[in-house]
Amino acid sequence: MKTVLAATLLLVAPIAAHAACAASDFTIQDVKVSAVGSGVATRLSVKGKLVNNCASAAAAQVRLDAKDGSGNVLASKMGWPAGTTNVSPGQSVEFDLGRLMHYQSDMQNYSLSVVDVKAW
Predict the structure, then answer these.
(1) φ/ψ of residue 7, rounded to 5
(2) Is 79 exposed, middle or buried (0-12, 13-18, 19+ CB in 10 A)?
(3) Which end of the chain has the least Cβ crowding within 10 Å, N or C?
(4) 69 secondary structure, DSSP code
(5) 17-43, pLDDT tens digit by residue?
(6) Looking at residue 19, what is its pLDDT?
(7) 2-118 adopts what CATH topology?
(8) Contact between 106 and 68 (Cβ < 8 Å)
């Protein structure tokens, strides 16, 4: 019986350790937004740095919302800044999610949030 219990604990322990990682364990820093180019070729650049403050390696999905001057969401996109690579604890990855979104001249404000966490 003790062997079965020990084996079960060894299988569940990695899951429990990952469960401790949450969206709130990641922060987004150094955000810079700009419109690059001109005319029809204008594209959006939303650069930042995703930092893992969790005790274990994991990846995070980030949501970008582009809003007009009244705060209405004009477009939303989500991406995994590190792709399918886990970010080690205390480490960061730089990203540019603007390339996922078509620039619109009435985009005035932008918000970035961590919406999901996964260990690959």
Answers:
(1) -65, -40
(2) middle
(3) N
(4) T
(5) 445 699 999 999 999 999 888 887 888
(6) 52
(7) Immunoglobulin-like (2.60.40)
(8) yes
CA–CA distance, 57 with 51 (Å, rounded to integer): 11
For the chain, give every domain's residue range.
2-118
Q: Is residue 67 predicted with pLDDT exceeding 80? A: yes
Residue 17: alpha-carbon gap to chain centroid:
20
Q: What's the average model confidence in pLDDT over 83-108?
A: 92
Angle at 98 between CA 92 and CA 103, to 5 degrees: 165
Q: And the tokens for 104?
A: 């619109």
What SS3 state is found at 51? Answer: strand
The residue whose two tokens read 């080690």 is 88
* Spatial CB neighbours of 78, under 8 Å, sequence gap ≥ 6: 61, 62, 63, 64, 115
